[in-house]
Every structure is written in C-alpha cells, then in structure tokens.
Amino acid sequence: MNILIVKTSAIGDVTHTLPALNAIRDYYPDAHISWLVEEAAQDIINGHPSIDLVLVSKRKYWIKEFQKGNRLSAIKEFFKFIRKLRQKKYDLIIDFQNLLKSSLFIAMARANKKAGYGVGMAHSEYSYIVLNQRIPAVPMDYHAVYRELMLVEKLGIPVKRISFDLPVFDSDRNAITELLIREGAKSQSPIIAINPMAKWDTKLWDNTKFSLVADHCVKSGYQVIFTGSHDDNDGVIDIQKQMKHHSINLCGKTTLKSLAALFERSKLLITTDTGPMHIAAALKRPVVAIFGSTAPWRTGPFGSIHDVVRVDLQCSPCLKRNCATHDCMKQISVDMVLASVQKKLDVY
Q1: Which of 12, 74, 141, 210 lies in disulfide reach of 66, CB 3.0 to 4.6 Å?
Q2: Where along the chain do its domains lie?
C-alpha cells in the first residue's frame, strides 16, 4: 500500500502531525509512506522511523525565483517536482494541511483516494474541492494533535498510542556539543533554553521582562541559552544588553535537529508561542510558554508537564497578528513567569 501524507508547514503544525503518522504506520506496518513537506520544516521528519520517503517542496524558492524574473527556471523546477510526485500512484493521500497550497499538489498527484477534512474547517480555503473523501469538520477548540488523530480515526485507522518519535541522532547531539563548546558554554552547568522571539507581533513579550527572567535563571545556577533564527538575532541581542549576567546567543546557528538536541539536554524551555515550543514538547522537555493572542488549548505545548502563562482577558485569544494595545502580553508579569519556571524546576 502506498500512502502520501501532505503537511507542508509550519514547524509546529508538522510536529503536531507526527502522532497521526505513527498511528498510520502502526495500522499499515508494511505500507510505503511518503510525506510532502516544505524545506523549512523538513528537518522535523527527516529520518523519522515511520517514513519511507520525504518529498520536499521548494514552493517559497520557486515563487521567489519567479518574482526575480527567473520564470522559466522556476516553472521547470516546479514541474520537475510534480513529475517526481506523480511517479508513484498512491492508494491513499491524506491532506492534513487544508490549504490551497497543499491542494494544488494533491490535485496533481495520482491517487485512488484523496482524503481530508471537508466543509467547515477554519482557514480551509476551499482546499477540500480536490478531495474525493471529505471527512466532516471537527471543532477547532480541540488541540491540533487531537484534530489530526481524529482525522485518521475517521478513515478507519485506530489510534493506540500518542507518540511523536521526533528523530534526533547522535550527529545532531555532537553538532550541538561542538557549537556549545565554541560559544563558551560550561559543560557541567544545567541549561535553561529561552526562545523569546516570534513572527507575530502579538506573540511577543517585553524584552526587558525577558532579561529579568534570564538573569534570575543565571543567579539560580543555570546557564541561559537563547535560541531563534537569524531574524531573531537583534531581539535577543537587545535582551542580552539589558542583562547583568552572561548568556549565550545561538540565533541562526542551529538546525532544527541540533536545536532539538539542545532541548534534549535542557532542564526547561521558556518560550513564546513558536515552532521550537512544539519541538521541546514533542521531546517531553518541560515548557513554560507565554501566550497572548493565540489559544493554548488549540496549539499550546502538548502534554501535561508544561505550563502556559497567560491572562484571561475578554479579547483574548483574538488570533490576530497585530494589536493596538498588546494588553494580553503586557499584563503578564515577570513574577508570573518565574513562578511557572520554579514550579517546573521543582519537579523536573
């Protein structure tokens, strides 16, 4: 049996789909399972024991090249990928993405059955029109992990366990060890990782407050290591400038897999609502997550070992990227975050 999973992005969303992947593998142990994913999130699934083939879409690169005037090259690359996608006829394609960008690939792929959620799912962008098996929508207030599992159950695939099995290899652990040595980390000091930035303006907490939390962690005997992308570097530098104690900035210096290896050896991750939060949660590392505009019961760190810090305002969660007041984040105090941090450290 040939199965294609379509979940192209983003880091957190791809991570949320791993338990559904494992359920499919458990039910179809001899199936050939492929996964279509975009470049930015491929590290999450590369080497996963339940996947036979990873198909990497360079959608953003193709669009960028097209916009730069390299239209013929971009079109050729796109159709080269489509030819690779169509080499295999699938018995089942499962659309976990529910977006137009995924429906285009599903429409072009060859398959007997193309399944996914139908009318009623939020943000579906009418992607269900390419499906020939449309599963009734489920409420968005279920956690994303459960929504993905409910989809496979509706397809007759039982869920016997909820496991991510996010792949981290010795090479990834060696890579983060070497990076930490180069950055001057103390090998014997316990680590608290802090991932303070986010793409949405409404997910950002105050940099000064982050500096106070980080300083408290250092004074408590922990080594603070900031994580993030290249784009997050300026924000982290601003936090570090306000700190009284030493910290390490790894923004832009890790792959997703070496980042996962860092979280494996960390006592705790303090974070905003971002992709790395889900990586740490999948690895069962305790997370203290600071939430404002988004709904933690939908997309918070999955599992009971984590703490979400938020204030219950009438306007929150608004699910908006921008806000005039930022009250939901402004009202979260340093003491609130530190209380959650201490609670996790006392147990873990």
Answers
A1: 74
A2: 2-154, 171-347
Q: What is the mean pLDDT of residues 129-133?
A: 96
Neighbours of 103 (CB within 10 A): 23
How many CB atoms neighbour CB 76 within 10 A? 12
Q: What are the distances in angstroms from CA 95 to CA 18, 120, 196, 249? A: 14, 15, 32, 37
Nearest to residue 283, comparing CAs of 190, 151, 193, 171?
Answer: 193
CB 48 within 8 A of CB 177: no
Percent of the chain with pLDDT over 70: 100
Would you identify the CATH topology of the domain 171-347?
Rossmann fold (3.40.50)
CA distances (Å), origin 322, targets 129, 235, 289, 328: 31, 18, 19, 12
CATH topology identical between 2-154 and 171-347: yes
Q: What does residue 225 show for φ and ψ, rounded to 5 degrees? A: -125, 120
CA distance 236 to 117: 39
Angle, to 10 degrees, between the axis of helix 144-154 and the axis of helix 18-27?
30
Residue 121 has pLDDT above 90, yes or no: no
Tell me the per-residue pLDDT of 300-347, one tens digit each, with 9 for 90 and over. Answer: 999 999 999 999 999 999 999 999 999 999 999 999 999 999 999 999
The structure tokens 């990928």 sit at: 81
Model confidence pLDDT, tens digit, residues 90-114: 999 999 999 999 999 999 999 999 9
Neighbours of 315 (CB within 10 A): 11
Please state which CATH number belongs to domain 2-154: 3.40.50.2000
